[in-house]
Amino acid sequence: MRPDSHEIYGRRRSRNVGLGLVLAAVVVLTFAVTVVKMTSGHNMEAFDHQQRTSLLPKTDG
């Protein structure tokens, strides 16, 4: 009997795979949120998230 054929190693491996999938999902979600914030916030400035008045359309008045 091989030492890695015990049933505890199978359970441990399945838990590790599940945890790896959860970690990968968190990384992908964080990356997606970052990309969306960067693409939709192109007219934002600095850390206070104020709109740049230089990028707004000119209005009379």
Query: In whole angstroms, how far apart are the ends?
Result: 86 Å
Number of strands: 2
Percent of residues in β-strands = 5-15%
The residue ranges in which pLDDT falls below 50 over 5 or more consecutive positions are none
How many helices? The count is 1
The major pleated sheet works out as:
2 strands, antiparallel
User: Strand order within the widest sheet?
Assistant: 1-2
Helix-strand makeup class: mainly alpha
Radius of gyration: 24 Å
Number of domains: 1
User: Quick check: average pLDDT?
Assistant: 80
> What would you call the quaternary organization?
single chain
Envelope shape: rod-shaped
Note the main attributes of this structure.
61 residues, 56% helix, two-stranded antiparallel ribbon
Task: Describe this protein's structure.
The chain is mainly alpha-helical and 61 residues long. The chain is built from one helix and two strands; from the N terminus they run αββ. A hairpin with a 4-residue loop joins strand 1 (44-45) and strand 2 (50-51). The longest helix is centred in the middle third of the chain and has 34 residues, at 7-40. The radius of gyration is 24 Å and the shape is rod-shaped.
Short description:
It is built from one helix and two strands.
Protein topology:
Blueprint: H1 7-40, E1 44-45, E2 50-51
Antiparallel strand pairs: 1-2
